[in-house]
Description:
Layout: H1 10-21, E1 25-29, E2 42-48, E3 54-61, H2 62-72, H3 77-86, H4 91-104, E4 117-123, H5 131-138, E5 143-150, E6 154-162
Antiparallel strand pairs: 1-5, 2-3, 2-4, 3-6, 5-6
Helix pairs in contact: 2-3, 2-4
Amino acid sequence: MITATPLPQLKELRDLYGGLVGRDCTVERVNDLMTPETKPGVIVATYVSNRAQVEAVVAVDVSLGAYLGAAIGLMPPAPAKDAVADGALSDVLLENVGEVLNVTAALFNAEGAPHLKLAEVFDSTRGALPGGPVSFLRSTGRRVDASVEIAGYGGGALTVVLR
């Protein structure tokens, strides 16, 4: 029986990110929707099914992107703090957070659900986001908006939106 792609639970997000970076993480639901209008600097990943259709979008703000990128790369917190102050990720931090977003696809791949894989990662500080991801972020349907804190680094906003 085919089921819909599952919306990740907060505990699943905490366990995945904590395991990836080897640090305690806290993940809490927030009521603030992350959209291009509410967060001008976001890193957005799109996930596609085997039909090449976007089924999910995950967005992190620059702050969370910087801290996840630094923590998974075993970098000290200072470069991430500099990126947060600058409002943009370095190439290394962007590549590292891209790896985190790639592994995030595992949360969507439940038995019976369509298999999703990372398609693209966009950085809105380097250019306008395409219309598809923007539409997802503006959706109020199947989504979770959360704050994520990485022990010893810092945190920021995360949004997961499903078709």
